[in-house]
Backbone:
């Protein structure tokens, strides 16, 4: 691949829908300016100091089109993605609540069945919420609470840290979407054990910062981590764990049901990789945290600046942002 081809790939990735959705977060950050100082804004969920640890609070809204087309799977994902956010903070999820608007009891039942399937699979109960079955369409938002003893944050990556990607490759695309599904067919015991790895890494002090790979894909998620930690990064695209049935371009905009980016001190890289390896999860070092503000990518001997946060903020998060 020559520099022009890598540049074209970067341009297409920057224009991807999931990447564009992440830039919308800036609206919320501007709206939260001047609030009470409780926790930093930019993490996967709010982390509120509480006794000897932290209360974690995550919420996700599902795209209306997705809920309409895939009611059961949207219900399942609404729980799963929140659990992933809590895990990314080094936490253990406690309970789920929902807000569901739907056009009929039948539609609502199908969406809720997916939510219940995920809650049962991961062992986290749905304890309440809101439902309206007389709406003009399907709309769904779900929130999860949890607790962490020690946090993994988006704010603590440092220059010199290794960037690791941990992704469960035991799955398949939920066609025609960019969703890598390694959850719905997996044994419940495995799902719960895999999710617990992040909290164990936090408790043992082996990882400094983490984020779950979301709709922005690997590079969009990394930009959010960089923005909060106020660092630069250089990554090798060919070192990211990838499913054999995926092209690199599709993989880089994919949303895996188990996928995390981690910033790890060099002396702990092997230990972290072994933790995931014992669970059958692919984990590889694919980049380095650096001083500065630019994300540079390398592939086949070529190098390209993918994004420079100094000139183009991504979400608008800052290391000193408080609400």
Residues:
């Amino acid at each position: 691949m020559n520099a022009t081809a890598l540049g074209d790939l970067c341009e297409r990735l920057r224009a991807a829908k999931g990447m564009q959705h992440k830039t919308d977060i800036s609206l919320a950050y501007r709206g939260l300016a001047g609030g009470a100082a409780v926790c930093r804004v930019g993490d996967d969920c709010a982390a509120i100091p509480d006794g000897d640890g932290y209360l974690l609070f995550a919420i996700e809204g599902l795209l209306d089109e997705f809920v309409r087309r895939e009611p059961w799977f949207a219900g399942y994902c609404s729980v799963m993605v929140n659990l992933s956010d809590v895990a990314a903070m080094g936490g253990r999820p406690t309970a789920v609540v929902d807000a569901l608007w739907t056009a009929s009891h039948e539609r609502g039942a199908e969406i809720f069945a997916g939510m219940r399937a995920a809650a049962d699979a991961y062992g986290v109960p749905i304890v309440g919420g809101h439902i309206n079955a007389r709406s003009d369409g399907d709309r769904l938002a779900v929130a999860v609470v949890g607790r962490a003893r020690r946090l993994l944050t988006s704010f603590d990556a440092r220059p010199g840290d290794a960037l690791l990607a941990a992704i469960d490759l035991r799955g398949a695309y939920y066609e025609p979407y960019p969703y890598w599904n390694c959850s719905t067919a997996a044994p419940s015991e495995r799902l719960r054990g895999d999710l617990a790895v992040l909290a164990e890494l936090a408790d043992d002090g082996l990882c400094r910062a983490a984020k779950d790979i979301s709709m922005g894909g690997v590079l969009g998620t990394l930009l959010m981590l960089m923005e909060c930690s106020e660092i630069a990064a250089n990554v090798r695209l060919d070192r990211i764990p990838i499913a054999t049935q995926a092209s690199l371009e599709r993989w880089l905009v994919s949303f895996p049901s188990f996928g995390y980016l981690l910033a790890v001190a060099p002396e702990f890289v092997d230990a972290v990789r072994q933790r995931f390896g014992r669970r059958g999860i692919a984990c590889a070092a694919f980049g380095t945290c650096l001083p500065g503000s630019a994300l540079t990518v390398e592939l086949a001997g070529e190098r390209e600046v993918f994004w420079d946060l100094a000139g183009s903020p991504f979400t608008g998060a800052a290391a000193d942002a408080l609400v």
The chain has ten helices and 15 strands. The longest strand covers residues 92-101. Confidence is low (pLDDT under 50) at residues 33-37, 319-323. The domain at 3-29+153-308 is CATH 3.90.650.10 (Phosphoribosyl-aminoimidazole Synthetase; Chain A, domain 2).
